[in-house]
Amino acid sequence: MKKYMAVKSKFWIGHAVAVIWTTFSIIVSLHWISDLGQLVSLPVAVFIIAGISYLPGYINAFMVVSLLLDRQPSFKVSDPDIPITIIIACHNEKENIGSALEYIKQQDYGGIIKVIVVDNNSSDETAKIAMEFAEKLSLPIQILRESKPGKNHALNKALDYVDTEYVITLDADTILHKSAVRYLVSRIKSAPKGVCAVAGAVLVRNSRQNFIARIQEWDYFLGIASIKRLQGLYQGTLVAQGAFSLYETRVIKALNGWPDAIGEDIVLTWNFLKNNSMVYFEPLAVAFTEVPVTLKHLSRQRSRWARGMIEALKLIKPWKQPIMYVKYMTGINFIMPYLDFIYTFCWIPGLVLAFFGKFWIVGPYTLFVLPLCMIQNGILYNYQKRVFKRLGLKIRKNKLGFVFYVLFYQMLMSPMSILGYIQEILNLSRVWK
């Protein structure tokens, strides 16, 4: 029988180890601070090195220890059969809506699955194709039209027609593992009373399309999954993503639906948490989504995510969150712009200087971050491998993508996030896709 450790104990053990690791990092890097301080002044040197090494090291150490202590609770309800509604908000998705509906039809879920497809001002034949597939598959479906552009408007249109206890949102370019709905509903029916939403595990569907997609495969498989596992452990998954998540219908309606925000799923989730509700993550509820295959579209997506985070911070302050762990998790987002700034304007130029033998910013001391990074990825890989085995899936071979993900991926992500911060500061117009 596995020994249970309280969440509070895991939280403080994680921080204790992180403090020890960071203290060690500071001690061994004093010479580095001194050398850099002679060039840019001591305060600026500390400002730079803290963003490159100390804070990322602290966060990673906390994450590694927390994940090692994490034990996903077993299902109390394994075969739920209550009716469920799936909302698919669509904008020009004629190429994808058919496959999304086919995979819904293949679910091994024991209850009735109702589907609402919302055509959000499409200029193609999304609605017509959805109806054709619904008839071919004998799938209970309702087609709605929302002329006002914006995903939140499409979702709220559908919410008026939802009469089931729980509702799932699904992107039209996302397909479900055959047990995805069953595991998602099983988790919320097995969870404590205060849990009002469960985020599914979204992975990459089109990783073989090109190298940009292959890199993102590891981001979704290891990076995003690790963050959601960490947040779920501490009772506050910060984004029940619209691509595939389950919500308690009553709670969403009490909050007047999805907010008018570029990160509508982020703000909605933080509103759940602010009202003393908990949000979980279910790694077995797997969906596969299309990811951007050009740097232009990847930049647009990631800058939108960064902008959504800033929106949430402006609307819902971390210190107003009632759950201690959620205060900490949301509070971390306050330092993300600082870390992205340092990475973009200090780490990347420092790496270029290192190639010319100038180790002022990037040098041997920065390697102390790598062991934690590799340990973290190793833990997640082994965990995800067990999840895939249970689901009857195989991990695709993608070694080159993994190497690039570990060593260079953040060089793309941080500048893209900086772009999103600037867009929010300047209050530029929003773009759904």
UniProtKB/TrEMBL annotation:
Lineage runs: Bacteria, Bacillati, Bacillota, Clostridia, Lutisporales
Q: What organism is recorded for this protein?
A: Lutispora thermophila DSM 19022
Q: Name one Pfam family in it.
A: Glycos_transf_2
Q: Which UniProt keywords apply?
A: Glycosyltransferase, Membrane, Transferase, Transmembrane, Transmembrane helix
User: Which protein, by its recorded name, is this?
Assistant: Biofilm PGA synthesis N-glycosyltransferase PgaC
Which InterPro entries is this protein grouped with?
Glyco_trans_2-like (IPR001173), Nucleotide-diphossugar_trans (IPR029044)
Glycosyltransferase 2-like domain location is 85-253
Which family is this protein grouped under? Belongs to the glycosyltransferase 2 family.
Q: Where does the signal sequence lie?
A: none
Q: State any single GO MF term.
A: glycosyltransferase activity
Transmembrane stretches in the record are 12-33, 45-69, 334-356, 362-381, 402-422
